[in-house]
Write a structure and sequence with these properties.
It contains 12 helices and 10 strands. It is an alpha/beta fold. Strand 4 and strand 5 form a beta hairpin. Helix 9 packs across helix 10, helix 10 runs parallel beside helix 12 and helix 11 packs antiparallel against helix 12. The protein is globular, with a radius of gyration of 19 Å.
C-alpha cells in the first residue's frame, strides 16, 4: 500500500474548491431516468449521454473527479478514446462504483444491506490497472418506526470498512458513503440522532479494519427533515445541524467530506452546501465538498433528451450547475 499516494489522491479530490461528479448510475437507474423522457433505454444511449458529460468544455474547472460505472469505464467516445483517458487528459481523476447494490436484509423488514464484497479484491486490482484511482461504496439506512436497528447499522458499517480496507490495499482511495435516506416524515432532530449514531459506528469499524483515515473521503447525507415532514427547516438550520453532527463524529484526519445530494433539488443542495462553507469554512478541520449526481446532471439530461442537436445546450447547463457548486464551496453561491 502506497500511503503517500493515497493521501495525495484524497487531498486532490477535495482541493481548489472542486468536487466530484457522480455518474455511476446502474443500468436500471439510468434507464428509468431515460424512460421518463422517452430516451431509448440502450447501451448506445447511455454511452452517448456519458460522452456528452465527459466532453463538456471546462468541466475540470469545478470537478476534480468523476465516479463511473463498470459499463462506462469500458466505453469510448466516437473517436475511439476511452472515457477514462478522456477524463485523465482533462486532469479529472477517474473513479468507480464497486458495490453491487442493496437487497433486503434478512430478518429485518424495511432495512437494506449492500452487497458486492465477493471477488472485490480481484475487481479492484483490475480497476487499478485500468487507471482508476478511487472507488465508492454506498450503504443505505432508512428511518422509520423501529428502524434503523443496531443490526442494520453495524452490518452496513462492517461492509463499508472491509470495502475501504480492500480499496487501500489496491491503491485506490475509498469513498465511504453511509446514506441516511430522506424518505419519511421524521424530523431534523431524528435525522441528526440517527446520522450521528451511524457515523460513530462507521468510524469505529474503519479503525478496527486499519483504514488510513488520511487516505479516504466521507460521503454522508446532510442533516435534513424527511421529505414528508410537516416542519421543514431553513438552509441555515440545515447547515448548522449538519456541521454540528459532523464535528461530533468525523476525525480531523479525514481530508474531505463530499456530500451526496440524496434527491435534493439542484438549487437547494448548492444553497445548503454554500451556507455551511459561508458560516464555517475557516473553522473546520476538513474540506466540505460535494459528490452530486442528479443535482448536477438533471438539468442537462432534460435538455439533452437523447438528441445530438441538444448536446451544446445540455453541456452549458451541466457546466453551470458544476460551477454553482464551486461557488458554494467558496461560500459565494447566489441562486
Amino acid at each position: 500500500m502506497d500511503v503517500q499516494k493515497l493521501i495525495d489522491t484524497a487531498r486532490a479530490m477535495v482541493a481548489d474548491n472542486k468536487g466530484l461528479l457522480a455518474m455511476d448510475e446502474s443500468y436500471p437507474t439510468c434507464n428509468k431516468r431515460f424512460a421518463k423522457l422517452g430516451i431509448p433505454e440502450t447501451a448506445e444511449s447511455r454511452c452517448d449521454y456519458r460522452e456528452m458529460i465527459v466532453t463538456t468544455e471546462g468541466l475540470n474547472e469545478s470537478i476534480s473527479g468523476v465516479i463511473l460505472f463498470d459499463e462506462t469505464i469500458r466505453q469510448h467516445l466516437k473517436d475511439g478514446t476511452s472515457f477514462i483517458k478522456t477524463l485523465t487528459n482533462k486532469g479529472i481523476i477517474p473513479g468507480i462504483k464497486v458495490d453491487a447494490g442493496t437487497v433486503d436484509m434478512a430478518g429485518h423488514p424495511g432495512e437494506k444491506i449492500t452487497e458486492g464484497l465477493d471477488n472485490l479484491r480481484d475487481r479492484l486490482e483490475e480497476y487499478a490497472k485500468m487507471g482508476l484511482r478511487f472507488a465508492k461504496w454506498r450503504a443505505v439506512i432508512t428511518i422509520g418506526k423501529g428502524i434503523p436497528t443496531w443490526a442494520c447499522i453495524k452490518a452496513n458499517a462492517q461492509a463499508l470498512a472491509r470495502y475501504a480496507a480492500l480499496c487501500q490495499e489496491a491503491g485506490l482511495v475509498p469513498i465511504v458513503e453511509p446514506e441516511v435516506l430522506m424518505d419519511g416524515d421524521h424530523s431534523l432532530e431524528r435525522c441528526f440522532r440517527v446520522t450521528e449514531q451511524v457515523l460513530h459506528v462507521v468510524f469505529e469499524q474503519l479503525y478496527t479494519q486499519g483504514v488510513l483515515l488520511e487516505g479516504m473521503i466521507l460521503k454522508p447525507n446532510m442533516i435534513v427533515p424527511g421529505l414528508d415532514c410537516l416542519q421543514q427547516k431553513t438552509v441555515e438550520e440545515v447547515a448548522d445541524a449538519t456541521v454540528k453532527c459532523l464535528m461530533r463524529v468525523v476525525p480531523a484526519a479525514v481530508p474531505g467530506i463530499a456530500f451526496l445530494s440524496g434527491g435534493q433539488t439542484s438549487e437547494l443542495a448548492s444553497a445548503r452546501l454554500n451556507a455551511m462553507n459561508a458560516r464555517y469554512k475557516s473553522k473546520l478541520p476538513w474540506e466540505l465538498s460535494f459528490s452530486f449526481g442528479r443535482a448536477i446532471q438533471q438539468p442537462a439530461l432534460g435538455i439533452w433528451h437523447g438528441e445530438e442537436a441538444n448536446v451544446g445546450e445540455a453541456q452549458e447547463a451541466l457546466y453551470h450547475r458544476a460551477s454553482c457548486n464551486l461557488s458554494a464551496r467558496r461560500g459565494e453561491y447566489l441562486e
